[in-house]
């Protein structure tokens, strides 16, 4: 089957997108030939008879309530929902802190509102930790769920909710293809309220849930609109007890959620078009609605995350704005998707447990950990050097934000398109330095000998790689060559 002419042109453009000069001694990525791009069709996780481009996008996000002390309302919310029995999820650290105490007090303030607490959620959840939480939830037949914690807690509650409804299904039935079967979620789930205690994942707004597949040393997850909470309660009091290191790592996740979703391939270039709207993925490509949320979050993060690094938890305004930015970025990437930084972060985090065994300061965990936001940031400069030629205007806008100016400023406007990637590399690296982020993969213990393993752990992340400019929109191409160069360029900066 021959591709339509506009598809062919897009594939040619995509194959040429990285043909800008090399700068600063860093190796650049050479594109595949035009002929290879034109003559091949991408391999899809779900085979289709006819490949057509997408022509629509959907916007889905949880209802959000934002305010100082609004956790106190969660008991009334669940009572209003006529909850029969509530499954409450948290982790051992949050269980001792003010957010969880406020949530329990809110539940206890209501008459005839039974609940059970699961406080064994682990940071960076694994298959085993999810299976334990799911088994516990299945025993209780909860009518509603409440998650109080960071992204790990909220994602675990999403999984417990899903597999309470799909009582006989296996975990891998819904894990993203090609790692799992990637089956669609067609049954309605129980109502879930999410109370985030970190300003990072935006999980209170999305239908994504991430876990570590330890047997394969990388992360992946489940992505379906059905998983999104019915309500996210964003309470400015709930990040007071976070360490500065945790707030910085969480904020880095916001930074790259917004950057990646804004620069993902456009929704109109995603193929194949689903045969039924229910099959339209949660991650659809950049689109006009997601763009608004992503850009706002990017500006806020560049402005306020350095204040948290400088002032810590005492800077109420910075904490407030980062909570807003986290939710805004969640709406953005929850509908557009992320791409290369996140795709490569999954093996960076997963392989660490067997390899470098790096343990980031400020985290109260027993084993090694490269926090998610840090693992995403390590490749940030090299990723956006690579993607810049795919959409110069968008990358110019991002560069202006990092440089605290506008795209019309002569210092930004006069930069040739071919040089944008190098400038963005330097600006992102400088920003990360200001937050004391480890300077590349070598700083967390990886060496050049680990590059191939990190690439092999990235290639199965099709859910996000298929949204990556120069990889997801190039026919018959898994991106291995480009991924190798990006990771090599991320070893140090």
From TrEMBL:
It catalyses: 4-hydroxybutanoate + 2-oxoglutarate = (R)-2-hydroxyglutarate + succinate semialdehyde; (S)-3-hydroxybutanoate + 2-oxoglutarate = (R)-2-hydroxyglutarate + acetoacetate. Residues 285-459 form the Fe-containing alcohol dehydrogenase-like C-terminal domain. Keywords: Mitochondrion, Oxidoreductase, Transit peptide. InterPro entries: ADH_Fe/GldA, ADH_Fe_C, Alcohol_dehydrogenase_Fe, HOT. Belongs to the iron-containing alcohol dehydrogenase family. Hydroxyacid-oxoacid transhydrogenase subfamily. Pfam families: ADH_Fe_C, Fe-ADH. Residues 63-236 form the Alcohol dehydrogenase iron-type/glycerol dehydrogenase GldA domain. GO terms for cellular component: mitochondrion. It comes from Leucocoprinus leucothites. This is Hydroxyacid-oxoacid transhydrogenase. One of its GO terms (molecular function) is hydroxyacid-oxoacid transhydrogenase activity. It is found in: Mitochondrion. The keyword DNA repair does not apply. Gene3D superfamilies: 3.40.50.1970, Dehydroquinate synthase-like - alpha domain.
